[in-house]
Specification:
Blueprint: E1 3-7, H1 10-22, E2 28-30, E3 35-37, E4 42-44, H2 47-55, E5 59-60, H3 67-77, E6 87-91, H4 99-102, E7 109-113, H5 125-131, E8 136-143, E9 153-160, H6 167-185, H7 226-235, E10 240-242, E11 248-257, E12 260-268, E13 274-275
Parallel strand pairs: 1-2, 1-6, 2-5, 6-7
Antiparallel strand pairs: 3-4, 7-8, 8-9, 10-11, 11-12, 12-13
Helix pairs in contact: 1-6, 5-7
Length: about 280
């Protein structure tokens, strides 16, 4: 099977690494170009590009999904139809794929979405599930169409969360579960055993990108806001609160203990990390 992977952030790396452990690798990787980071605006590769370099897998970093890129992709696939790409796979790539690209591979374009679609369509399904304390969740392998998270479902797996961990850990867990699910159906992709099921679109719920203001914890802390503060701590990388002096404090380590939100470490504004 000749296949291409489209992805950019850490969750894509977790998926690729788990597939590598299972014995499968994509032939080509497409990821976002290097981006400037920090005060000095130093160009940094995406996590997926770093993974591709480390593992010796060919990659492309197009700025746009335009005709030039798609012609290059077709060229690398070989002369159609005998050597056409079999499958594209997308996980957190960060760009909209046009219909011409969706129609390119023989088996279509699959996508891993970390929710039980049609629930939590959109860019933040894991964070939204955490904030909603929705512990009955799961993953969906779907076929991409031109609408957001709208395509037919190939297979789903329910996942029960006992207690939330921080978002990076949850991303890793969901990605590895998704890699195992994808690997389990690989042998069936070229057979008549594959059936796609239309989503129940009337049941769809949606999530959006969160803003910095969403990361603010409710202060002063008390029993009433404890659970929601803990969920924000798990969902966001830099949850913060303003103390009585108007200073911002980033919570770096906390836990949920017997109904209480216990903060262990913070970074006060303008200072180094310390115990709370």
């Amino acid at each position: 099977m000749k296949s291409v992977f489209f992805g950019t952030p850490d969750i894509s790396v977790y998926f690729l690494e788990k597939l590598k452990e299972l014995g499968f690798s994509f032939d080509l990787i497409v990821t976002n170009p290097d981006r400037p980071i920090g005060r000095k605006q130093v160009l940094n590769p995406s996590p997926v590009k770093e993974w591709a370099l480390k593992n010796g897998i060919d990659f492309l970093t197009p700025e746009k999904i335009d005709n030039d890129f798609m012609e290059e992709l077709e060229r690398r696939g070989g002369a159609a139809p005998q050597k056409k790409w079999d499958l594209f796979f997308v996980l957190a790539y960060g760009k909209i794929l046009p219909k011409k690209l969706l129609d390119m591979p023989i088996l279509g374009v699959l996508n891993l979405h970390p929710s039980l679609l049609p629930k939590y369509r959109g860019p933040s399904p894991i964070m939204s599930a955490i904030l909603d304390d929705q512990k009955e969740t799961g993953i969906s392998l779907m076929k991409l169409d031109e609408e957001m998270d709208h395509g037919p479902i190939l297979v789903q797996k329910k996942i029960k969360v006992n207690e939330w961990k921080r978002n990076p850990e949850m991303e890793k867990w969901f990605a590895e579960e998704g890699a195992e699910l994808f690997f389990s159906i690989l042998d069936n992709l070229n057979s008549d055993k594959v059936e796609f099921k239309e989503q129940e679109h009337e049941q769809a719920t949606f999530c959006s990108k969160y803003q910095k203001s969403d990361m603010e914890l409710d202060f002063p802390f008390n029993q009433e806001n404890a659970r929601q503060n803990f969920l924000k701590y798990c969902a966001f990388s830099k949850p913060f609160y303003f103390d009585k002096n108007g200073k911002r404090n980033i919570v770096t380590k906390a836990r949920w203990d017997n109904g209480n939100f216990i903060i262990e470490k913070i970074i006060p504004e303008g200072k180094k990390e310390r115990s709370f």
